[in-house]
């Protein structure tokens, strides 16, 4: 099977945040939104929704409209990103230079909002490489990764079959979404974390060039 398109996750796959204790800061940010909305919700409930152990619409159980909740979360994170950008703390990984060498349609797919995804890609000079940039679809908020929904949606937009798509990401959410879409799941190891569910594991995005050569002769 020839590869006809490559879909990339964005955060911690293409770009990184040069911030100490980033996850703790994001947790404080999210807990602040929960508090402002007066929700009797624990951060662990939020984490379960992110992992889709329960639907993202589960937030209705706490008396808030799901669209309102996730938009508030995304607005807070967008503000945080803008602040980091002003300080020069959002950066592209060095191996993203390989994007200019790949001669096929590329898409960026993120669980963040499309606004936030486009913002960081433009900031880091990567936006020009992508034919499609797709963030969270508020019409189907349960379609975030690890659901295959966004991969299937972008495949239709580009006129390719999911099995002709390679999905590159750093997290289990990316890999599960790719496998569920019947795409080729490539784990880029940005940490020491192993994801055995991936079809392929790489240490650098430059390795994609050899992988594409191998698939082109099959």
Walk me through the structure.
By secondary structure, the chain is an alpha/beta fold. It folds into 2 domains: 138 residues, HAD superfamily/HAD-like (Rossmann fold, 3-Layer(aba) Sandwich); 65 residues. Helices cover 39% and strands 14% of the residues. The strands form 2 sheets. It has a 6-stranded parallel β-sheet with strand order 5-4-1-6-7-8. A two-stranded antiparallel sheet has the order 2-3. β4, α4 and β5 form a beta-alpha-beta unit. The mean pLDDT is 96.
Q: What is the ordering of alpha helices and beta strands?
A: EEHHHEEHEHEHEEH
From the N-terminal CA to the C-terminal CA, the straight-line distance is: 7 Å
CATH class descriptor of the largest domain: Alpha Beta
- At the fourth level of CATH, the homologous superfamily of the largest domain is HAD superfamily/HAD-like
Strand order of the largest sheet: 5-4-1-6-7-8
Shape: globular
Q: Which runs of at least 5 residues are low in confidence (pLDDT < 50)?
A: none
> What's the main sheet like?
6 strands, parallel
Number of domains: 2
CATH architecture of the largest domain: 3-Layer(aba) Sandwich
Q: Which structural class fits the helix and strand makeup?
A: alpha/beta
Residue share in helices? 25-40%
Oligomer: single chain
Mean pLDDT: 96
> If helices are DSSP runs of H or I spanning 4 or more residues, what is the number of helices?
7
CATH topology-level name of the largest domain = Rossmann fold
Approximately what portion of the residues adopt beta-strand conformation?
Answer: 5-15%
């Amino acid at each position: 099977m020839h590869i006809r398109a490559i879909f990339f996750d964005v955060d911690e796959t293409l770009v990184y945040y040069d911030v100490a204790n980033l996850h703790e800061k994001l947790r404080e940010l999210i807990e602040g939104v929960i508090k402002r909305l007066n929700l009797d919700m624990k951060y662990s409930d939020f984490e379960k929704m992110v992992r889709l152990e329960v639907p993202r619409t589960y937030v209705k159980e706490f008396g808030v409209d799901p669209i309102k909740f996730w938009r508030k979360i995304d607005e807070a994170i967008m503000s945080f990103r803008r602040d980091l950008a002003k300080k020069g703390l959002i950066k592209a990984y060095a191996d993203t230079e390989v994007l200019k060498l790949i001669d096929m349609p590329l898409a960026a797919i993120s669980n963040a909002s499309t606004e936030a995804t486009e913002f960081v890609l433009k900031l880091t000079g990567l936006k020009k490489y992508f034919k499609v940039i797709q963030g969270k679809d508020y019409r189907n908020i349960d379609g975030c990764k690890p659901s295959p929904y966004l991969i299937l949606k972008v495949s239709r937009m580009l006129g390719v079959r999911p099995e002709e798509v390679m999905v590159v990401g750093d997290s289990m959410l990316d890999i599960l979404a790719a496998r569920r879409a019947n795409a080729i799941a490539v784990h880029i190891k940005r940490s020491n974390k192993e994801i055995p569910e991936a079809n392929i594991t790489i240490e650098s995005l430059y390795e994609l060039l050899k992988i594409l050569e191998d698939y082109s002769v099959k």
